[in-house]
């Protein structure tokens, strides 16, 4: 059976949150929900909120290979016309699938949506991912280079409708790395998509959760993210889109939080990879100030900095 939507959810040790995520998906026969578990304690299917009509598939993945591997496991089983990616601690906003349905007979390969963000436990609004909304708004208002920005700088896989057929055709997968596993998937789908559009509807709610990967800063995660940025930098140059390079100077400057030795590793890496870290040099003072004087928050969600 081919479904209209295949929703891939990587899960790790967040049973209460994944129940909320699954509950936000309508109970429809044309929806395939693929939960890929890489928890320390395996997820019991009976603990999930099962639905009468939707097809829910529970898979497992290698604990050591992280969310990128989990998403790739899900991709292999996806039978939907459209791919959707949902993080276990996030959820869809009411009306999202009614909006998705309006594009079912379109010739678009990707539809980019706006989104909102809340703290996971209080549901108080945050300003996370406002940049994604700006990309959508710029596209809809016809700003210069807006389509390229949407394709190459909307670097989260969620809050998009993505045609399964061209992902399979070009064998686009997630990087199986500690952090930023989704960056090159987003960039490559943006590149290979023939027709794209955007919709201002806030279809998706991305939460801020204590101890999440995006809120935990470590040497391993920081290096992984930096290497992903380098891959993006080289890829957009190779396809003739050098203006779409991500600015790496923020990653270099903020590596100082781990000490001067780590900073030197970043400097030697950009030298070896022939990366122009002075792209965006005018923002260095702003970045230094934000990371070294304003990074501590008083809301209980301050970033967690680890040496390993």
Describe this structure in words.
This protein is α/β, with parallel strands linked by helices and 308 residues long. It folds into two domains: 207 residues, Spore Coat Polysaccharide Biosynthesis Protein SpsA, Chain A; 92 residues, no CATH class. Helix content is 36%, strand content 20%. The protein has eleven helices and ten strands. The protein has an eight-stranded mixed β-sheet. It has a two-stranded parallel sheet with strand order 9-10. Strand 1, helix 1 and strand 2 form a beta-alpha-beta unit. Helix 5 packs across helix 7. It is globular, with a radius of gyration of 19 Å. The termini are far apart. About 3% of the residues have low confidence.
Short note summarizing the structure:
This protein has helices at residues 15-23, 66-77, 96-101, 130-140, 146-153, 164-169, 183-192, 219-238, 249-254, 260-273, 284-293; strands at residues 3-11, 31-37, 55-60, 80-85, 91-92, 110-119, 160-163, 196-208, 216-218, 304-306.
Secondary structure: elements and pairs:
Layout (H helix, E strand, L loop, with lengths): L2 E9 L3 H9 L7 E7 L17 E6 L5 H12 L2 E6 L5 E2 L3 H6 L8 E10 L10 H11 L5 H8 L6 E4 H6 L13 H10 L3 E13 L7 E3 H20 L10 H6 L5 H14 L10 H10 L10 E3 L2
Parallel strand pairs: 1-2, 1-4, 2-3, 6-8, 9-10
Antiparallel strand pairs: 4-7, 5-8, 6-7
């Amino acid at each position: 059976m081919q479904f209209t939507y295949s929703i891939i959810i990587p899960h790790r040790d967040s049973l209460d949150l994944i129940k909320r995520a699954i509950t936000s998906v309508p109970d429809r026969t044309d929806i395939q929900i693929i939960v890929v578990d890489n928890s320390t304690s395996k997820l019991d299917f009976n603990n999930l909120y099962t639905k009468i009509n939707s097809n829910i598939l529970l898979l497992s993945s290698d604990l050591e290979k992280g969310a990128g591997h989990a998403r790739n496991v899900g991709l292999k089983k996806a039978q939907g016309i459209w791919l959707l990616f949902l993080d276990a601690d996030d959820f869809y906003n009411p009306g999202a699938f009614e909006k998705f349905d309006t594009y079912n007979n379109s010739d678009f390969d990707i539809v980019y949506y706006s989104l909102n963000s809340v703290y996971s436990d209080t549901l108080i609004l945050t300003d996370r991912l406002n940049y994604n909304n700006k990309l959508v708004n710029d596209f809809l208002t016809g700003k210069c280079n807006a389509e390229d920005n949407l394709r190459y700088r909307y670097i989260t896989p969620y809050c998009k409708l993505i045609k399964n057929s061209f992902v399979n055709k070009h064998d686009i997968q997630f990087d199986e790395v500690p952090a930023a596993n989704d960056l090159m998937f987003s960039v490559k789908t943006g590149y290979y998509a023939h027709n794209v559009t955007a919709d201002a509807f806030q279809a998706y709610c991305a939460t801020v959760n204590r101890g999440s990967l995006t809120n935990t800063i470590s040497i391993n995660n920081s290096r992984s993210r930096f290497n992903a940025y380098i891959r993006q930098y080289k890829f957009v140059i190779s396809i003739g889109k050098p203006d779409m390079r991500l600015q790496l100077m923020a990653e270099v400057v903020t590596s100082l939080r781990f000490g001067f030795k780590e900073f030197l590793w970043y400097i030697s890496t950009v030298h070896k990879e022939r990366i122009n870290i002075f792209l965006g040099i005018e923002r260095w003072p702003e970045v230094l100030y934000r990371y070294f004087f304003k990074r501590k928050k008083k809301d209980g969600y301050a970033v967690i900095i680890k040496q390993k």
